[in-house]
Amino acid sequence: RAMELSPNHFPAVRAAAVALGYLRYLRGGPGRGLELRQVRRARRQDIDGVGHKYYLELELGDVLDKDTSVTCTAEVLFHLGSTTSAPDVQVAVQGELRSTQEADQEFYNQIRSLEKELEAENIPDSDGNVPPGLEPIQLLALVASGYVGWQNSTENTHFNLAQVKHVKQVKRTDEDLQFDYVILLHEMVSQEVLPWQVTLLWHPQHGARVSHCHALG
């Protein structure tokens, strides 16, 4: 039997952050930044010998589209005593996020046509500003941070992307775009800021995948 939780209670919010990270990795891109608007409902089930399972109903939106929101149901299972295996996440999204097909293709073509590989640091800068041309790069960092957060979360953590410390595009022989990121993740429970190195591959038809990531220092 699952127990109702207050939607704004820490365990519910932390489980929601894992579901959001997973979805950002799955559905995010240079033209879409998923954000959590609200935890509508949360329940927790303690499964003997397995772990704690959260059932969530979330309202999500896109940072680039303030007027539209979608409903998402998610199940997040944290394995007992495990610090090595990622939580199991299942999600279903009801409603349509606006299409990014055109923006994706435009960004792809633009990066492919650069004479010199893109390189940038400190996004946003100390004043919180993101240069307009680098917004897609920051949104892709959100995808990368979503993956890291999902893979490394426990019931007692809550990861948030604080900043892109450094990003460098790497030329490839295949069709993918490759970005090597150093991102700073803010862990909201311990208040630590943790640097991670993440290699993200992205293609407008196939979406994103992380080919490598590890914590620095």
Automatic annotation (TrEMBL):
One of its GO terms (cellular component) is extracellular space. Residues 1-102, 119-217 form the Cystatin LXN-type domain. Keywords: Protease inhibitor, Repeat. The keyword RNA-binding does not apply. It comes from the Eukaryota. PROSITE patterns: CYSTATIN_LXN (PS52033). InterPro entries: CYSTATIN_LXN, Cystatin_sf, Latexin. SUPFAM superfamilies: Cystatin/monellin (SSF54403). One of its GO terms (molecular function) is metalloendopeptidase inhibitor activity. Belongs to the protease inhibitor I47 (latexin) family. This is LXN protein. The keyword Nucleotidyltransferase does not apply. It comes from Alaudala cheleensis. The lineage of its organism: Eukaryota, Metazoa, Chordata, Craniata, Vertebrata.
